[in-house]
Fold this protein.
Amino acid sequence: MSVTTVMLVGVGGQGTILAADVLAKVAAASGLDVKLSEVHGMSQRGGSVDTVVRFGDVVHSPITGPGGADHLVAFELTEGARWLHYCKPEGRLVVNERTIDPLPVLIGDEPGSAGTRASLEYEGAVLIDAEAVACAAGSPRSANVVLLGALSLGLPFDPEVWCDVIAKRVPPKTVEGNLAAFRAGRAACEIDEECPR
């Protein structure tokens, strides 16, 4: 298998690090070489977080550059737009419909992100309201796992491997809720004709 690059971007507190860890463990459990790179930034203060997971028969580096990601998963709209140039032209873009405005926007020093959703749609993004899907699945804090479910449809890994890794990685009392969120993310994407498989 050639090397596949997945970039996950979001804001501190959204669970991007956990999602990347689950993806890396799924790839490793499937017998692939895996490299992972994390940039936390000011994540504890709501700052940008980006993580790259690369997997294949042999992976020499965890780093990717602009135009290098086969899949870009954005945990909110603004980060999706900000990192869009890292996605290959033929790459898959999965974006949570949530917007988290940075402090300069909140205090009125910078304009908001009007038009971001439309521009991402124009680029072919698969948009999913991950919070709403997570709530409907009975696990409101599992939007990150919903996004993994949506991502999983574009990757060659067995759903049971995903479920096994998720069950081992999340706190024991949240296992059922997270598994429901993962399945709901897959289901939400399966019924959307615009969602590539």
Q: What stands out?
A: The two ends are 18 Å apart (CA to CA). Strands lie at 4-11, 33-39, 48-56, 69-74, 87-96, 126-128. Residues 192-197 have pLDDT under 50 and may be disordered. DSSP finds eight helices and six strands in the chain.
